[in-house]
Amino acid sequence: MEASRDGKPLSAEIKQAELKAPKVLDRDLGDGIAYIRIRDFVSQDTDKAVEQALRRNKGAKAFVLDLRNNPGGRVVDSLNIASMLVEEGKLAVAEERLPSSLSSPRFATWRFSVNKDTQIIEGEAKEVSPRKFPYLLNGRPLVVLVNGHSASASELLTGALMSRPNILIAGEKTYGKGVGQIISEKMPGGNGVNVTNIKFFAPNGLNAGDGHNKRSGFSADIPLPKRMPTPNEPDSQINDAKDMLKGLMKVSGIAGS
Q1: Which domains does the chain have, with CATH numbers?
Q2: CB 110: neighbour CB atoms within 10 A?
């Protein structure tokens, strides 16, 4: 690469390489509160990375889960993460378009839920299997941060966590993409096609939208407009989430540290 600085030519060699940034970040916020950020659900084993983050912070009294700017990815990872944060109950409902004509479309409905020891998928048949991941939140308060760039699988996770005891959704309305796609690579010339064939619903029956013209998104329980960053407050929403958790901890009789 060649460039010019102050009228003098500069040259540098740049090697192409894959940027490998961690998809899950965690840190201690103090006062017994741990922070976990999920960048996206694109990579396999994002669920395992979240499990490791929860276990690393097993001594935390409360958590901030940051899904801001998370564009989504693998649905299965999103549901697995939900199962670590929900002890029992419905996680999501999926409506899948089956191969059929436009005049007589056919659909299949799938319900995903967990209880103490098992995970359950109900459709035409009922499939019950041992939980792949244990319940790790253990009743501790959780604030989930979302914004207008939280989409798809991150909205699926947000929907699964709405209206749960000790869990608050905070931030801004999510993007509005409650649909999923199937990718077919069996096209001439090695091409592929991406077809939207599934719609997801939160346990309360809400759908985030189609990602295009009908984007309702999910509204936060506590709206948090983001303030301009300052040296003392680089991310106001994290600080606000921490303050909310302190209140939840006080109500729950949990002492910070």
Answers
A1: 23-250 (3.90.226.10)
A2: 16
